[in-house]
Amino acid sequence: MDAIFAPRSVAVIGASSDPKRIGGRPVDFLKRHGFAGSILPINPKSAEVQGLTAYPSISDVPEAPDMAVIALPAPMAVKAVEDCAARGVRGAVIFSSGFSEVNDEGAALQARMVDIAREGGMRLVGPNCLGIANVRHNLYATFTPGVEKHLPRSGDVSIVSQSGAFGSYCMSLVRMRGMGVNIWATTGNSCDVDFADAVAYCAQDEHTRVIMGYLEGATDRDRLVEALELARANSKPVVMMKVGRSAVGAEAAQSHTASLAGSDAVYDAAFRQYGVYRARSVDEMFDVTYACSGSSTLMQGDRLGLVTVSGGVGVLMADEAEDWGLEVPALPDHAQKKLKEVLPFAGVRNPVDVTAQLVNQIDLLETNMDVLFGDGDIDGAIIFMSTVGLVADLNEAIRTGLERIRDKYPGRPMLFCSLTEPEGRAAYERSGFIVFEEATRAVRAMAALRYFASSFERLRESDPIPELPSLSPLPDGMVNEIEAKALLAEAGIGIVRETLAKTPEDAATAAEDMGYPVVLKIASPDILHKSDIGGVALNLRSAEEVRSAGARILQLASEKMPDARIEGLVVAEQAAPGLEAILGVAQDPAFGPVVMFGLGGVLVEALGDVSFRVAPFGPAEARRMIDEIRGRKLLDEFRGTPKRDIDALANALARLSAYAAHHGAALESIDVNPLIVGAEGESAVAADAVIIPAGPNPD
Amino acid sequence: MDAIFAPRSVAVIGASSDPKRIGGRPVDFLKRHGFAGSILPINPKSAEVQGLTAYPSISDVPEAPDMAVIALPAPMAVKAVEDCAARGVRGAVIFSSGFSEVNDEGAALQARMVDIAREGGMRLVGPNCLGIANVRHNLYATFTPGVEKHLPRSGDVSIVSQSGAFGSYCMSLVRMRGMGVNIWATTGNSCDVDFADAVAYCAQDEHTRVIMGYLEGATDRDRLVEALELARANSKPVVMMKVGRSAVGAEAAQSHTASLAGSDAVYDAAFRQYGVYRARSVDEMFDVTYACSGSSTLMQGDRLGLVTVSGGVGVLMADEAEDWGLEVPALPDHAQKKLKEVLPFAGVRNPVDVTAQLVNQIDLLETNMDVLFGDGDIDGAIIFMSTVGLVADLNEAIRTGLERIRDKYPGRPMLFCSLTEPEGRAAYERSGFIVFEEATRAVRAMAALRYFASSFERLRESDPIPELPSLSPLPDGMVNEIEAKALLAEAGIGIVRETLAKTPEDAATAAEDMGYPVVLKIASPDILHKSDIGGVALNLRSAEEVRSAGARILQLASEKMPDARIEGLVVAEQAAPGLEAILGVAQDPAFGPVVMFGLGGVLVEALGDVSFRVAPFGPAEARRMIDEIRGRKLLDEFRGTPKRDIDALANALARLSAYAAHHGAALESIDVNPLIVGAEGESAVAADAVIIPAGPNPD
Fold first, then answer.
1. Nearest-by-CA chain B residue for A325
2. Domains of chain A with bracketed CATH
3. Which pTM does this prediction carry?
């Protein structure tokens, strides 16, 4: 990959003398923007291109370049890759369209090209992409007009985008917002180097501090997860834009890209699981990136301090902080007392309002910050100065005060928020401060600094995936209810005691053994929704009740589903009343087996109040999954019902995820509905379950 | 009020020769910024202030000024108001602090000052405020440093802020964002002219097109509502910032202001009810204001068109549009066909992706817009041009094309979204276009244009508040369940048939008359939560069951609540099964009687899924209220349950609101829990109700 992102020499195949043409732009950019290595234009018709010696073909160059840019029509591009491989070129960036984004023929062409490259030990970026850049090396292997006039400065933000248009837009915006870029990569059809590869490269790149990603759809879950985990392990925040969360959006995204997009809720969950920050707007993406760039500090706890010259904006920020899960704790009494001594009419609770008096008494801010951090146990602070930042001499005094505070309390992020003139702002930035104009955006950025700190902390958490004993293989065909629960029981998931009875009389005998009350259910691999046909009887309290209910169930089943194979009756102990949860496993097109959790009844059905995780995961991750649903408080002591056994629930989820991961693609889906969650310490048991194997492998 | 906001002459009482002091600033601003009327400094110690003739007191000025600015300590300010009233001054802006914001003594001083002003026919702004401005008149009756160096241009945005700090910040930001200001008012302690008065003034001001409001807490509901309705009647969008939605925020807001803040959810509902746009961030506030200012057009339908040069951003905008309730409909086939003819590889569904080809074929955009509006029945469009707006000649071509489209299809808003240089942006703005840099913010602004159009449309909707027949007076003391329902029945709200029985035997007789099944409940004004003590028996099917249940209920009541007054047993028909709704009335400190709606069970209890409206309102408003809850779909056909009688539910809510408004402050609260909503056409009946009168009037 270094051959592509840090080459010593670059050939441009299809180089044009016209610096505005696709084949001319990379020559122009490389030359004009100061790429230090050799630039080797390849053009069969001209011995010179834009003042550089040109060669008729790649075989004619005096020495094999590390990398080639290919700006030729599709069939010729394949030939060029072949020639490059033969010449020992190690990587190529292919602009050409006409491949898999067009039709099957193009896809076949693309596949052939990849085969050639693999055989020749070459990596390929594209085709149908806008190219790549390495700003530190003045390497612009791209034809984006975005770098024609203005270049970003060299810096620590790397950008990986599946879309060329979005990638270009990002590079311009990063520049206009004063940040610096290191690697820029657009992956286009991603025939070889894909989004995950490029992220992984940036994750290992010492000059990259934060990675911006634009993803339309993932195709290789394992490599994507690996890349994200690598970034996390190297403490590099990944800020992601993944569009298509609405119905229209998802449809439009599919018409826009060949990738089969996974469910948006699953992307959302996966990003949280792997510590990626998902931005919902371009502003948010850039704000968060900005806050993570430079010499910024992550926020090591939830306690946010707010210092303002406007009580109202203090409240606005407190509102926003709550939305993002940050605490704005009241300062301890002794701290409040200290602040009152400094300025009797200040707001001292937190938000701290130093009022317009700050203008007359500029050291107020430093004093306040000292109390906030020294006495208030605050993990990070936002300083909202309204229009004060427009005044040059005040700015100078504020900044030097904040520098002293930063030296005294390192590791606690401070965001400065004020209207500023460009020069005032630049002075803060040179000094390493992050500057926002808008109060709520500063809060959101701070929340992101907390988000990444938590995400990086989780790497140190021990959360082993449950080890499962040796498991029975998945049956080939339908799995009946008893078998399904037996399989889950092997994975260590609690189930109700139950047995299969052939006849109502057998059922009565089994019930006598089991003890009352019992539940009776029709046993048939063909009847999934038993209660819809009257196939379930609850709370039976005697042999007589079991006999008559059993007879009724069998009769209803034969009337309503005459073709169903009937195996008899399931006799199960009636589970103690508990809260009903729904656990599920499904195959996500992007992430493979994913686990779903929700609480039974209207929460799932009317509100879709569920959470997801990519399998497998441990119980601690399961607890976070549980905490995400809106109806979470039903699991605590609630209106007379006891606190539920959340340990048992988390354990069941983690075990289900391990089971799902074990079977992988062999499993189509699992539904555990309900899992009855008892009171704390009482465990959780599956009262019903459906397992659907994926069936015979289509390969 | 014109005396204050458009005076011909202004006295500055407490005028200082130092233009940096509070008493010096207004003199400096009025003089330097070109106020055309007379400026009359009042200073007993100096015959000249900042080059102007000064007078020892207001009685010495040659002619009474329309308005006086008072920059004196509190007690002297009261005296100054007295002198002004005597001299015939019609209005005053009082900067002085030391009034109701400090303590009771200050409040008394303030009350006295208001009495003096009222007697003298004077209006007062402040005290404890930053003053007011009228930019068209170069009137700066303020000491905010925000207008020391830079003035906003004269324009159509008026700003009303309870907070001086926030008001100043707003004025600077409006200026920096290139918008123009007309009226600017900070109301401080709002002793006379309050937030509502200032909004009402702007609502009637011909030069104001949009009103920005910053509200901490309302004190006079009727005047606030009147002002908001006036703005709506005059088609002036009101964009409001009301902080304090979080728990910490609300607490901080109360420590910050003397106003007793109402529940934030009620403010939220009231703003929606009266068509006010509530912004959640400063960016949003300014984006929406910007989109409503100038010659912008509201959006007359929900159908949004998106034209982009980046498929990804198209999807991002579609996502955002869904969040804000806008449709991004697929274009009709013939329109898609037309677009494909123009550019075969374009995305043509909507979002329309003209791709980077636009750069080579700039008239693509005009053609596309023509198809969008001409064939696509689209109500408004966002044109996302990524970095294209940075290129001057492309900009010129795009702009003139859009101008032709605007002339051809007037009344359909078009927002231009691109990175731009300041000059390029200004050219669009001069031509009357709204320009955003960020795609999701453009969508949000468009949604606001739709919001105001809907809000203004609703004024033309006929939604009469139900007329109630003559009602019984509210009882003085406790109201028992039967009485409560009888009172609601008078208001036309359906209730279950029921009767009071003294003994279990009487109950059995009553049940025989009524027909089975019946419900039996303890009747006691002292027992509010009947089922908690076993005071309810459902589904009784015979005289014998009624007798024994009645005896048990009476016994449990005497055991568990021996001091409760027992009136007997309520015998009620068992309502047909339906969906249980909860209707409530409460007194909001800011808005008086408000009505709450939610669906029974976990939705209300675990998720707080309720909506509010200020009473009274009509059935159409009630339907909007019903549509706001998250669990709304439970009222439609849902998993085998029928569609519910939403007409009956809306009617019950509207009647309850009329009932609440009728009794006003005499009512503490009403709970109708449950209202059983039958299937469509089956009506809705209150199965239980609690009415708590406010009790003896404390006055």
1. B246
2. 1-131 (3.40.50.720), 152-294 (3.40.50.261), 296-460 (3.40.50.261), 497-573 (3.30.1490.20), 579-693 (3.30.470.20)
3. 0.91
